[in-house]
Amino acid sequence: MTKPVLLVIDDDPQVLAAVRRDLRTRYRESYTVVSASSGEQGLATLGELKARGDALAMVISDQRMPGMHGTEVLARSREVYPLARRVLLTAYADVDAAIRAINEAHLDHYLSKPWAPPEERLYPVVDDQLDAWQAEYLPEATGLRLVGHQWSPRSHAIKDFLAGNLVPYRWLDVERTPEARGLLDAAAVGVDDLPALFFEDGSVLRSPEPLQVAERLGRPLSAAYDVYDLVIVGAGPAGLAAAVYGASEGLQTVLLDRHAPGGQAGTSSRIENYLGFPTGVSGSELTRRAVTQAQRLGAEFLVPVEVTGVTMDAGYAHVRLSDGRALVTRSLLAATGMVYREHPAPGMSEFSGAGVYYGAATTEAAAFAGKRVVVVGGGNSAGQGAMYLSRYAADVQIVVRAESVRATMSQYLIEQIARTPNIRIRPGTEIARVEGSGHVERVAFASPDAGTIDVQDVDAVFVFIGTKPRSDWLPPDVLRDARGFVLTGRDLMAHADSARLWKQTREPLPLETSVPGVFAAGDLRASAMNRVASAVGEGSMVVRLVHEYLALT
Ligand SMILES: Cc1cc2nc3c(=O)[nH]c(=O)nc-3n(C[C@H](O)[C@H](O)[C@H](O)COP(=O)(O)OP(=O)(O)OC[C@H]3O[C@@H](n4cnc5c(N)ncnc54)[C@H](O)[C@@H]3O)c2cc1C
């Protein structure tokens, strides 16, 4: 198989030769370095590579070139190779312009010239970008292939599981991909067996559950120890941060998640406001880094494993799992976050997984290339979802009840949406019902103020509204507010039941719930900030508090 390509574009022959040399020195074993001396030539090279079926891992382009600027070349490269990492090469004086371009052209990084020594200023950036590309890239003819019907909720569940767990796979729609038929016939897989997951060694799982897929992929599903210092339930940003700190500070730590690491943040196409990522970072990329870090430091992961209840006994928490097993721990962190509520409009539940998706923009976007989609919600998650979908869909409508998204969406997203021609916002509008035969085909939009109903052909609806806490698995002694969010620290002492439940002579620690030794962090907590950074901050803080708690017992 041919090696993936690194394409370098610069009109200055000396700079071009220097980048080419430095890249070849380090990456020639695994990548082919190709160069072009102008933006136009770079685009032509991209076309040739695509025609030959070559994989492109990264484009590095200089910004200031006569004719086409680097940002334009990089933006256009995305149409040909959406997964390739895009890096802009700039002079120090152009750094401000490069940072602005990052927003507009969705670049992955910028590199300042000169980059000597490359060991410090070039290779760490390129290594990082190539790791991220490798995590997403799947060679055409190999790897996992999932064959199924686009409108099947079971297919959606497996896609969501594989994507959420960062397992690269190729989706083959049985009605649209000729290769799918060939695979099914060769393995005698019938239509009733779909979705079917084909492995590289030729074996196949027919209509599997996520748990079977996890087992087949060799994911550990049983706990390694009898008793833990810290069991973390929920592997969103709060749980992942706690796992990193817990493991690095010597606590026997295990992290459980019912679905996949990353939580809500893992479904985000681009988190722009997380400290230390000047070009933004996708939820899957942040998750990949966090999981690698936590595992390297010694945290144990059990995914997919659902926690259904907790019982306290002699200072130990017994954490019950949905398959009947239990884990015993000296302290527990509840970091199960929030989930979208079911949209109440008629047709929404009937077509869930068959054209109606809750927050699943990154999993399903590619299936709606050239189609008409609707995004419901006016928050940042809806805005990000719409931006991601606009890369594929022909038409994206954002439906919001309010008259404007100004109060609910960040300015940078409002500006990006305004600049994206295939997205429009429909203020003062609600979904009245969803219609179709077997899958979503039409949506009725209601404008209550105008008293009108407008029915349009639509292929999919992505819902990003209405959140509720996932706190139902916690024991009743864990106090919550009226909406079910968990009270911690001083907040819980204001609750009418606190005197009945809190029998310690000490005050609860910050982030400790009304059950001693049971902590809560992130979006699950009452008065949470609902941000990745605050969830990470709380998850990190908890470990210090767990040490304090364990020292008291
Ligand atoms: C699409 C989208 C985009 C966003 N963009 C941004 C952004 O740009 N910037 C920003 O700061 N914030 C953003 N947010 C908000 C941010 O993602 C959340 O605030 C953050 O993820 C909260 O983290 P958490 O760890 O508290 O919980 P969550 O992320 O909700 O994770 C909870 C985890 O618990 C697991 N779980 C639930 N119940 C159980 C159970 N019983 N057993 C086992 N596991 C369970 C779930 O599977 C999940 O993985 C976005 C949110 C969404 C949905």
Overview of the structural elements:
Helix content is 33%, strand content 24%. With 553 residues, it is α/β, with parallel strands linked by helices. Strands 10, 11, 12, 13, 14, 15 and 26 form a seven-stranded mixed beta sheet that branches. Helix 2 (39-52) packs parallel to helix 3, helix 3 packs parallel to helix 4 (95-105) and helix 10 (237-248) packs parallel to helix 12. The chain is globular, with a radius of gyration of 25 Å. The protein starts with a strand and ends with a helix. The relative contact order is 0.09. Bound molecules: flavin-adenine dinucleotide (FAD). Residues 233-239, 256-259, 263-265, 267-268, 271-273, 306-307, 335-338, 359, 380-381, 384-385, 470, 473, 522-524, 530-533, 535 line the site of flavin-adenine dinucleotide.
Lay out the secondary structure.
Layout: E1 5-9, H1 13-27, E2 32-36, H2 39-52, E3 56-62, H3 70-80, E4 85-91, H4 95-105, E5 109-113, H5 118-121, H6 123-136, E6 144-148, H7 153-164, E7 169-173, H8 178-186, E8 196-198, E9 204-206, H9 210-216, E10 227-233, H10 237-248, E11 253-256, H11 263-266, H12 283-296, E12 300-302, E13 307-313, E14 316-321, E15 326-334, E16 338-340, E17 356-358, H13 361-364, E18 372-376, H14 380-390, E19 395-399, H15 411-418, E20 423-426, E21 430-436, E22 440-447, E23 452-457, E24 460-463, E25 467-469, H16 489-493, H17 498-501, E26 518-520, H18 532-552
Bound molecules: flavin-adenine dinucleotide.
What structural class do the secondary elements suggest? alpha/beta
Give the helix level as a range of percent.
25-40%
List the uncertain runs.
none
Number of strands: 26
Helix segment count? Answer: 18
Mean pLDDT: 93
- The shape is globular
Major beta-sheet overview:
7 strands, mixed
Distance between the termini: 59 Å
